[in-house]
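Known limitations

C-alpha cells in this collection are predictions and should be treated as such. Users comparing against experimental data should check residue numbering before alignment. To illustrate the layout, the record for Isopenicillin N synthase family oxygenase is reproduced below. The input appears on top and the generated C-alpha cells appear beneath it.
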Amino acid sequence: MVMIPVIDFHLFTSSDATDRQTVVQQIYQACHQIGFMYLKNTNISNDLIHQVLKQSKDFFDLPLTVKQQLAWTDEFSNQGYVGFERERLNPNNPGDLKEAFNIGKQKLTDIDVTDKLSSPAKNPHILNFYQACTELANNVLQAIALALKLPEDFFATNHNQQNHTLRLLHYPSLSQPPKLRQVRAGEHSDYGSITLLFQDEVGGLEVRTASGKWIAAAPTPDTIVVNTGDLMERWTNHVFCSTKHRVMIQNDDTLNQSRYSVAFFCHPNDDTEIVCLESCQRDKSPIYPPILAGEYLLSRLQATY
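Generated C-alpha cells:
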C-alpha cells in the first residue's frame, strides 16, 4: 500500500553530507511515487502556525458584508476574499463548500488593502508566516534541485520574485445536506511548483495514488504537508507527479465542525520558461511544449472561476 512518507527535514539543513543526501533521496522518492510528503522539524514553529490559524478564524468569523469589502476581483491579481461556493476546483461539481482569502507578497504592503483593519494581510503574524514559508520553500526547492542533479540554487533562483500566494481556508460546518457531488474542495491538482499545507485537527484531505485509489492525508502532529504541482510535473517531464487531491465531507462528528487550513502556493517567476529539464528527458521526448510560468497560472485561474 502506498503511504505518504514522513521526512525529517532538519537533517537536510544540518551540515552532515550523508544526512543531507538521505533527505534528498527521500524527497525524490516521495515526489516521484506519490507527489506528497509530510515534513517534520522545519523552521516554522507550531506557535506561529497556531497564531495564523487563529487569525484566519477571526477573519472568517466576521460578517459577510465586511469580508466582501475585500472581495477577490480578477485572476490577474488573484487576491482577496473568495466567498462560499464561488470556486469550483472540479468544474464538473457544484461550488466548493469553502471560503478563502488569498494574499500575495504585493498585498502585504498594498495600502489599499492593508488600510482595512479587517484584512488578514495587515496582521504581523501573517507577514512573519509568509516570510517563514518562503524560507522553507526555498530550502525544499534546493533539495529538489539536488534530487534532480541540478545546481542547488536552480529552482530557488527561478522563484526569487516571490510570486507566491498564501491562502487562508475555511470549510464551515454543515447544517444541511450538500448538493449532489458537492464536496469541500473538488478534485484538483495545484498549479505551481510546490505547495506547503498546514492543517488543523479536522481531517478530510485525500490524495489519489497512481493506481487511482484515494488515501487520507490525515492531520499529523508537528508536520507540514508538501506536494508537487503542475509546473514541477511539466519541468520534470512527469518524473515528479502533480497529484490530484480533494477535501471530502466526512460522515462523522467533523460534519458539524469547521475545518481550517492554510496553503502556501509556490510559483516560479512569471517570466520563467518551464521547459523539460535535460536530466528528465531520458528515453522519452518532452511531453509538453515550453510555457511561461505566469501564462500557465493565469490560464488555470481563468478556468477555476
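For this record: Confidence is low (pLDDT under 50) at residues 111-115. The chain has one domain: 43-304. Please report discrepancies through the issue tracker.
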